[in-house]
Amino acid sequence: MMSTGDATPAMSNSKHDRMFGLDVCRTIAILSVVIGHMLLHSSPNQYLAAIGFTAIFGVDLFFCLSGFLIGRILLLESANWPIQKERGIMLFWYRRWMRTLPLYFFFFFVELRMYWGGASSVFAQKEYLIFAQNLAWSMPNFFSLTWSLAVEEWFYFLFPLLILFWIGIGKTPRAAVLITIASFLLIPAVLRFLCFDTAGGFNNLDPNIRHIVIFRLDSIGFGVLVAYIAHWHQALFQAIAKLRWLFIGMALVCMAFIKFEYFGLAESKLMVTLYFSIVALVFAGLIPFFGGLSPTRFSSLNRFIKYTSLVSYSMYLGHVVAFTLGMHALRRLHLFDAVYPNPWLTYPFFLVLVYLVASLTYFAIEKPILAMRDRRNSASPELPGKVLASVD
Questions:
Q1: What is the pLDDT, as a whole number, of residue 114?
Q2: Residue 390 to residues 73, 288, 370, Cα–Cα distance (Å)
Q3: Separation CA 307–CA 75 (nearest Å)
Q4: Residues near 215 by Cβ (< 8 Å), separated by ≥ 6?
Q5: DSSP character for 296?
Q6: Does residue 1 lie in a domain region?
Q7: Is residue 5 part of a domain?
Q8: What is the pTM (predicted TM-score) of this model?
Q9: Backbone phi, then psi, for 260, in 5-degree steps?
Q10: In a domain, 45, yes or no
């Protein structure tokens, strides 16, 4: 059994320090997304198809986890920014973008050739080069899963920039982080409320609100808030961890709201505004619970969780490509009509391909680039101490 105990994810400077519970969190999140999208294929029975909507919450969990992990980095590194100033933020951006951009652009160019709507060109999809595909408007019907990555990338850019601004006008790093957190929690919620009607209301909730960068930055902001609490208010952090069943129950209620069409409250713009904030708060509240989990007694399960967490970014960007390759292979082998309609044949085949594609891209692209990035960092005597490897 996994033990929650009273363990808390304390800040660490060890590169090789991994937190099993956060690996569990990331594994649940990525498998929710992959399985949710996979259920759009083949012919699942009604009960299996009914759980496909959980992909939405896999993304929400990713946002909160990302905010928590990146928040811990910023809490450590921004303490040096009154001295480092621009150098500190540039080092932060360098590490983040070396982590995310190379693989993103690899799959972007793959999608240009493999897109189900037909081959496209860089010029036709130029907004994807700067993550402007869904900044304040509905994104094109291309490489649509990157809507959430665009939210992440704008968070990486704007959040530390605002911290540096407040430090630059005389605020302490701690005050600067707290003011920035408050801004990221309030501004997207206010924008959702003000723009709800012009965005098309509930009938266009996903493309015009849920998937828009400026409306979703608070989802990551709540994760940063939990990181702030973990760093500065350990007693409160431990108290939140003990409320795990409350947060689990609230997470189930949030899922029920989606499943049962918001229980008739769908047309209330105040409800929609608060719903996204509440979901982010609830999933962020689960982070202390995950942080206290210990490895199970089943070593094979532990290895599966750690490996899935390790290749999760490759799984996220590559799982639709894996599905496409699988369908192409079935057609080439003249097995599509025999295999694809049967979910018990199609889904295991798809999952194997997802892990295969993710493993190949991780070891061929992600890992070498991260090694190059870290070699450069280790050669710089002015770099702040390293943080958890699970953040990389």
A1: 82
A2: 11, 16, 12
A3: 28
A4: 188, 191, 192, 195, 209, 276
A5: -
A6: no
A7: no
A8: 0.89
A9: -110, 35
A10: no
| Cα(246)–Cα(254) distance, integer angstroms | 12
Asked if 37 and 59 count as a contact pair (C-beta separation under 8 A), the reply is: no
* C-alpha span between 42 and 350 (Å, rounded): 11
Amino acid at site 322: A
- Residue 2: which pLDDT band, with cuts at 50, 70 and 90? very low
Residue 82: HSE in the Cβ half-sphere, 13 Å Cα cutoff: 12
* Closest among 303, 311, 320 to 390, alpha carbons compared: 311
Cβ neighbours around 327 below 10 Å, total: 19
Which residue in this structure is represented by tokens 């003011």?
179
Q: How confident is the model at residue 145 (pLDDT cuts 50, 70, 90)?
A: very high
Residue 85: inside a domain: yes
Q: What is the mean pLDDT of the chain?
A: 88
pLDDT digits (tens, 9 = 90+) for 37-96: 999 999 998 888 888 877 888 999 999 999 999 999 999 999 999 887 788 899 999 999
Cα 278 from Cα 281, distance rounded (Å): 5
383: its two tokens: 């770099």
CA 320 to chain centre: 16
Contact 126, 142 (CB under 8 A): no
Question: What region does 262 belong to: left with phi over 0, alpha with psi -120 to 50, or beta?
Answer: left
Helical H segments across the chain, by residue range: 20-38, 46-49, 55-77, 81-84, 86-114, 147-168, 173-195, 205, 213-232, 234-242, 244-259, 269-285, 287-291, 299-310, 312-332, 336-339, 343-361, 367-378
Q: Which two tokens stand for residue 368?
A: 């070498």
Domains identified in the chain, total number: 1
Q: What's the domain range around 349?
A: 66-232+266-283+310-391
Rounded average pLDDT over 209-226: 95
Q: How far is Cα 217 from Cα 75, in angstroms, rounded to an integer? A: 18
Q: How many residues can be counted in the chain?
A: 392
